[in-house]
């Protein structure tokens, strides 16, 4: 049962929704992939203006919540990045360090948990598979099409459960 007395929540992905990962894609193009370098470079991600503007707009009516496939070990850098780029404060849901399930499974599980007690106004994510599954489950989604798609990142999200 949702609590209608509290503000609804707007859920935002990070990578390629709010943060431009293009400069660190090179670490995923190598074999083996260099995950440590990929995540270590995340603090240098430039913000994506369209995503940031939408998060700030939604913060006027909603509590903003962040839902990322980044592993928990990236929390300090992620929180610093959000603050440094003026994004709204909000809870950050991250993948357990050892969780390798596809992004669409982990994110949908968290969305459903959030929806048990709060209205989820929208999910904003660049991953079409995450958006399709969330929409099928009854959530309103916004597919973030403002970044160039990355086959390496998609494989990492769905095939390797890495982000």
List keywords for this structure.
37% helix; 7 helices; five-stranded parallel sheet; 163 residues; alpha/beta
What would you note in describing this structure?
It contains 7 helices and 5 strands, in the order E-H-H-H-E-H-E-H-E-H-E-H. It has helices at 26-29, 35-40, 49-58, 75-84, 103-115, 128-136, 151-158, and strands spanning 9-12, 63-71, 92-95, 120-125, 141-143. The protein has a 5-stranded parallel β-sheet with strand order 3-2-1-4-5, sandwiched between helices. Helix 5 (103-115) packs parallel to helix 6.
Identify the overall geometry.
globular
Q: How many strands appear in the DSSP assignment?
A: 5
Main beta sheet: strand number and arrangement?
5 strands, parallel
Report the portion of residues in β strands: 15-25%
């Amino acid at each position: 049962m949702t609590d209608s007395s509290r503000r609804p929540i707007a859920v935002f992905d990070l990578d390629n929704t709010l943060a431009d990962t293009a400069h660190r894609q090179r670490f995923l193009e190598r074999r083996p992939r260099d995950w440590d370098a990929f995540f270590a470079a995340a603090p240098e991600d430039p913000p994506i203006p369209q995503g940031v503007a939408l998060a700030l707009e939604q913060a006027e009516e909603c509590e903003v919540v962040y839902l990322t496939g980044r592993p928990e070990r990236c929390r300090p850098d992620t929180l610093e990045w959000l603050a440094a780029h003026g994004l709204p404060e909000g809870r950050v849901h991250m993948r357990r360090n050892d969780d390798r399930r596809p992004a669409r499974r982990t994110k949908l599980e968290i969305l459903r948990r959030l929806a048990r007690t709060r209205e989820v106004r929208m999910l904003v994510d660049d991953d079409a598979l995450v958006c399709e599954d969330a929409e099928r489950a009854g959530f309103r989604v916004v597919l973030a099409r403002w970044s160039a798609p990355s086959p390496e990142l998609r494989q990492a999200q769905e095939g390797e459960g890495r982000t």
